[in-house]
Amino acid sequence: MQAPAPPTSRRSVTGTRRTVAALFLLPALVLLGALVVYPIGYSVVRSFYDQSGDGFAGFDNYRALFTDDGIRTALRNNVVWVVFAPTVATALGLVFAVLTERVRWGTAFKLVVFMPMAISMLAAGIIFRLVYDQDPDKGVANAVWVGVHDTFAQSSAFPKAHPGRESPLEPAGGGAFVTRATVGVGDTVALPLVGVAPDVMPDDAR
């Protein structure tokens, strides 16, 4: 009867695998520490110093952070943005998903949603240029605005007139213009306008 062979000893590779894994992780850990952990720690330490960076200020910077009106407004705006932006984006996404899949006219809605993605940026720029052109005869948005304005208010005698680039006039709202500098009584001021049709110019205009 032959005696059973002694069990062969197997060399454990657990330690080797851990070493190899550590070697693979080492570059990523070094980059993470150098680019993320160290800057964060350094910023926290420097936050306890004054503006010059030499004097220790303690928690004065943090007290100013939460007592300054401008900073508190910025923090409040950020909180509002963080809370409402994802909520609105998620709600609109759900609405779009329902409108594109669960309604009878979903194909038409898909066309409206995805059409801007099919238009090149150059074509979109040209379209926006035509829509928002200053000339009411070309710009759709300006033409609509002028039409609504003229419906409820008297139209200007020279609707296309506007100051030139080097004109001393500046817009004052409501289609009016005022001089940039203060003008005294008896002073003569040139008021150059461009865009006035020749047939509507007064006879004594120069």
Describe this structure in words.
The chain has 206 residues and is mainly alpha-helical. Among the domains are: 18-67, no CATH class; 121-179, no CATH class. Helices cover 54% and strands 6% of the residues. The chain is built from six helices and four strands. The chain has helices at residues 14-46, 60-67, 69-101, 106-118, 121-131, 140-152; strands at residues 162-163, 169-173, 176-179, 193-194. The chain has a two-stranded antiparallel sheet. 0% of the residues are buried.
Question: How would you summarize what this structure contains?
Answer:
With 206 residues, the chain is mainly α.
Strand content: 5-15%
Q: Strand arrangement, largest sheet?
A: 1-4
Main beta-sheet annotation: 2 strands, antiparallel
The ordered string of helix (H) and strand (E) elements is HHHHHHEEEE
Q: What oligomeric state best describes the polypeptide chains here?
A: single chain
**Morphology call:** extended
Radius of gyration: 35 Å
What are the segments in which pLDDT stays under 50 over at least 5 consecutive residues?
none
